[in-house]
Amino acid sequence: MTKTRKNADDMGQADAGGVTLVIGGTGKTGRKVADRLTAQGRLVRVGSRRGEPAFDWNDPATWLPALDGVDRVYVTYYPDLAFPGASARVTAFAEVAVAAGARRLVLLSGRGEEAARTSEEGLKASGADWTIVRSSWFNQNFDESFFLDSVRSGEIVLPTADGVEAFVDTGDIADVVVAALTDDRHIGKTYELSGPRLLGFDDVAAELSKVTGREIAYAPISMEDYRAVLRENGLPEDFAELFTLILDGRNAHLVHGVEEVLGRPPRDFSDFAREAAATGVWDLRAV
To answer: Is the model's pLDDT at 12 over the cut of 70?
Structure first.
């Protein structure tokens, strides 16, 4: 017997469909997708190494138990679809999922990531009712993971020069994903998501300085130096390649998937920054 998440509404409301497996259900987008689906009275299973049953991308033996009773899946891959081995695993998983009865697959991909396209095509070829959601970089990278320590230290050191990015909020991504999982009108569609404006990292530093009340600086470094930083911190050097998406300008334009799916504009970075600052996440005492 596997465990799923339910909310109080399940007591008096029939569930719409079977179980939704949210891979990476404790992560930045997966957590919000799981919460939104649960609030709708839908059954949700969190796919993670600590889940019940466990799900591990590197252990295909865990896939079928996690798919038991599942009819739709939100597919996220860590660390990134552009990393070596990702496309083979995503393609194999999609085939297993469809054979197990999970017809609806929604894949989180990246804007401008050519290396991610093989994963997209592999998932499409599985015969699933698919939706692809290509996202810009997350607002929440600054308060939940990659750049949190840099913001707290007062200096964001990155190999991005004067490149710009249309940062998107994970809440908007989650709303789009939930729509794709639950509404047949999104089957066979590819949506590209961005925020409402382009920001350089100097703009980001200015926004964060304003809401924290202290100076946050942006210090560009070379790609070679950044690779050395990754090595020193025990992180894959492949992360450095993701910055080419900003450096070469391929994503230096806005896209409108949020409006297309949700009928409203995306959340602005300044709104995210103001609300995140109010939680105290960037306070020096939080270090």
So the answer is: no
Average predicted confidence (pLDDT) for the chain: 91
Q: Which amino acid is at 28?
A: K
Q: Which 3 state secondary structure label does DSSP give 173?
A: helix
- DSSP secondary structure string for all residues of 26-88: TSTTHHHHHHHHHHTT-EEEEESTTSSS---TT-GGGHHHHHTTEEEEEE--SS-TTSTTHHH
Torsion of CA 232, 235, 237, 240, to 10 degrees: -100
Name the phi and psi angles at 131, rounded to 5. Answer: -140, 135
Reduced to 3 states (helix: H, G, I; strand: E, B; else coil), residue 210 is helix
Per the CB < 8 A criterion, the answer to whether 201 and 160 are in contact is yes
Is residue 126 within 8 A of residue 91, CB to CB? The reply is: yes
Q: 259 with 265: CB under 8 angstroms? A: yes
Helix (H, G, I), strand (E, B) or coil at 258: helix
Section 67-74 average pLDDT: 98
Tokens 């998440």 belong to which residue? 5
85/82 Cα distance (integer angstroms): 9
Structure tokens at 124: 């499409």
Express each pLDDT in 238-269 by its tens digit. Answer: 788 778 777 789 999 999 999 999 999 999 99
| Helix, strand, coil distribution of the chain in percent, nearest 5 | 45, 15, 40
Tens digit of pLDDT for each residue in 164-218? 999 999 999 999 999 999 999 999 999 999 999 999 999 999 999 999 999 999 9
Nearest to 219 by CA among 164, 156, 149, 142: 156
Angstrom distance (rounded) from CA 105 to CA 50: 22
Give first-to-last CA distance, the chain, whole Å.
41
CA 22 centroid distance within chain: 12
